[in-house]
Amino acid sequence: MSKEERKIRRKRKKRIRLGILIAIIACVLFAFFPSFYSSNSGTHLIEKERIEKTIESKTIVVKKESIYESKGEGNLKFHYEEGEKIGKGEKLVTHNSNSSNYDYNTQIEEVDKKIAKLKDDNKSNILFSDDIKKLQNEIDVLTKKISSKVKDDETEGLDDLREKLEEKIGKKNKMTQNEGFLAQRIEELEEKKNRLTKDMNNNNNTYYSKEPGIISYEFDNLEEVYSYKNVLTMEPKDINLDKQTPFNTKELTKIEFGQPVVKVINNFNWYILAKLPIEKANSLNKGDNIRVRVKEDGQDLKGNIINLKSDKKNTLVLIEFDSFLHKYYKERFLEVDLILKTYEGLKIPSKAIVEKDGLKGVYTKNVDTVIKFKPIKILYENEDFSIVDQGERGNIYIGEDKERYSTVTSYDEVIIDGNLINKYIEK
Question: Is the pTM of this model over 0.90?
Answer without folding.
Answer: no
